[in-house]
Amino acid sequence: MGNWIAGCAVSISLVALYFSYAQFMLNRRIKREASQPYVVPDIQPREGGSGILVFTLQNIGSTVARNVEIDVDPPFQGGEGGDWDDKLRVALGRRLSHLPPGRRLEWYFTFGPRFYQRADLPRKYTVKVRATGPSGPVEEMSYLIDLDLMQETALDRETVVAKLGEIAKYVSKQARQR
Questions:
Q1: What is the DSSP string of 72-116?
Q2: 52 in the same domain as 23
Q3: Which of 66, 8, 13, 10 is nearest to 37 (CA)?
């Protein structure tokens, strides 16, 4: 009977050791990932409701991203003539020496309403991001930017200036009524 109890105790100890080790490895991975930079590319409407779409690159991680490299397939084509596309291509062809936490970079991509009138422009882009964090190279991330998803959003909404004009008219009207 004593041997059976001892065998059970050893088995339970081994299972507990296994789960303790698994928990330790998970905590270690969580700590490592929490201390890494996360550089996220996106195409989104520019603030203020202008209808302009911008390509953004933002470090949402907690540490500095170093040696940031971006690959885009196919190359960006916004359809605004060569100027915007060329400037974006040149900017993304360079290696960024660093991108601090919370930093957001923004480049003009295209004017949204005009872009969606053209069927000859690519709507899906794969963006690969490579960077180095405090613990060495960060895992390469691949993002699919699908501009068809954005087509029905409010790209041509009123600008902030127009909204402020409406507010000023309302306030003025309320003041006259008093």
A1: EESPP--SS-HHHHHHHHHHHHSPEEEE-TT-EEEEEEEEHHHHT
A2: no
A3: 66
Please tell me whether residues 53 and 138 are part of one structural domain: yes
Structural domain count, the chain: 2
State the average pLDDT over residues 81-88: 81
pLDDT digits (tens, 9 = 90+) for 86-114: 888 888 899 999 999 999 999 999 988 88
Q: pLDDT at position 73, please? A: 95
More confident site: 68 or 113: 68
Tell whether 142 is covered by a domain: yes
Give the span between the Cα atoms of 72 and 13, in whole angstroms: 52
Residue 174 included in any domain: no
- The structure tokens listed for 101 are 């936490």
What's residue 96's pLDDT?
A: 94
**What pTM did the predictor assign?**
0.70
Could you tell me if residue 129 is inside a domain?
yes
Chain centre to alpha carbon of residue 56: 7
Say if residue 44 is in the same domain as residue 30: no
